[in-house]
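Sequence dictates fold. Below is an illustrative record:

_____
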Amino acid sequence: MISLIMAGGKGTRMNTKQEKLLLEYKKPVIMHVVDALKNSNCFSRIIAATSSNSPETEKTLRQSGVEIISTSGKDFVSDLNFVLRQLDDSVFITSGDLPLLDDKIIKQISENYNPKNVWTSIVTTNKFLNSIGINSEYTTKNKEYVYSGISLVNASEINNLESIEEDLVVIDDKRIGLNINTKDDYELLCST
């Protein structure tokens, strides 16, 4: 299995000049994700999708030995589609803004991967996120669940991202629930 860190976004909702994934929480946010992936020992390769939106993040990732695939930086879906077309393996996709991610939750998610499912999204319940002080706009169609930024994908079965049946796995855990998308999210992280 390959791990793919999505790290090419603009981070505009943070309203800061510093690249979002380099915000500090003991170390840069992105490095919590990198270290968790490495420490899990679940992956043959660790790749990051970066773009011209995140040059300092890319530099930090290269220095830590992460393989880089440069994308257009147009938007998350376009960048993800671009990268997945280059891979022919099972892929553990994660956002780079999950600073509480650790090797234990990665192992738990990876061990339950079923390659017969082309796309499995890891979600939390909206109720759980609200209970820990998070409001997210990244809900599923029925608004009951919130995307964590983690998916398990059988990339060899994907031609494009438009017609894929998605399976959901619900895990209510702050390690995958706390994405740093806004200043409020960052303040919540720093208060933990």
Remarks:
- Residues 29-40 form the longest helix (12 residues).
- The mean pLDDT is 88.
